[in-house]
Amino acid sequence: MMIAALAAMTPMQVSAQFFKKILKGAESVLNNAVSTTRSNYGEILGVTVEWGECVKWGDDVNVKFTLCNHNSGDFTMHFFNTWPSGEKHSYAIASNGERYGITFIYLGGAVNDNCSVLLPSGVKVQGIARVSKAGGKVDKFRYVALGGYNPGQKTPNFCYTSRSMEVKEVSNTNRDNLKCTLPSITVNEQEIKRYGNSVVLVFTLQQSTGKDMMLPVGDIKVYDNGGNAYAAELLPGGSVNMISDVPVKRSLAIKNIPTATCLSIIRMTIVDKYQIEWRNVTIP
Questions:
Q1: How far apart are the first and last CA of the chain?
Q2: Helix, coil or strand: residue 112
Q3: 240-272 pLDDT per residue, tens
Q4: What does 242-260 look like in DSSP terms, one character per residue?
Q5: What is the dihedral of CA 175, 177, 181, 187, to 10 degrees?
């Protein structure tokens, strides 16, 4: 029967049918690659996940999500971080096929030793999963899987998945020409003014770590658009004592700058390897 059907086709039809089968087979292999050994995995009945934003966080990427228990009683979920084998639990796959590990950093609050979270009935609970070492490499995830194990359930192994997640830059400044590479710090420029031969840039810093912290400040580099360098001083100087979610005002005094009208870069190093940086700053 198959031979007769092939004999009745033109060479072009046979070629088209052949390539359709090849493409279908390749699609099957791809789907199996991102769901390996998950035949016994599923979502928990009555518990849903709403996927939030996916943002770069230093060297990592944070994936935000919201859990909701639609059942009549409270429910506790037990998530798993990526195991050393990287299989069967939580992980992410980039658009180029590279696999990354996941660690849960927030589950309705601080994460406990067994990564469990209580879901009251009808209440939304937020979570954050951190994809390690993907911040400088990945612009899009093909597949993100958040898995765990709940004993006593009909399907004890659970997994919630999202496909095609764009990785965005963290938004932690109020100017397009201003960036801060430490995601937990928000920088808001307030004003820039000239005082004689000096220029003063006023801004606020705010941290969102959930606890008090000291922010060490290192080198400050300033250049104008002609390549001239200038000395600058942070006022008040030294490390910045910061309370979580409370803005702190600082001024940057740039000295002996009588004629320049544009600064090509202002870069301030914080916590050794991070920077607060302005580009193409017009001096009024």
A1: 84
A2: coil
A3: 999 999 999 999 999 999 999 999 999 999 998
A4: E-TT--EEEEEEE-S-SS-
A5: -30
Q: In DSSP terms, which residues pair with 160 in a beta bridge? A: 146
Amino acid at the residue 232? A
pLDDT in tens, 158-167: 999 999 999 9
Alpha helices in the chain (DSSP H): 2-8, 11-33
Expressed in percent and rounded to 5, the helix, strand and coil fractions of the chain are 10, 50, 40
Residue count (the chain): 284
Q: Note if the pTM is more than 0.70.
A: no
Q: What single letter denotes the amino acid at residue 219?
A: D
The CA distance from 5 to 2, in Å, is 5
**Distance between CA atoms of residues 261 and 228, nearest Å:** 12
Whole-angstrom Cα distance, residue 143 to residue 64? Answer: 14
CA 33 and chain centroid, separation: 24
Q: Strand, helix or coil at 128?
A: strand
- Report CA dihedral (78, 81, 86, 87) to the nearest 10 degrees: 10
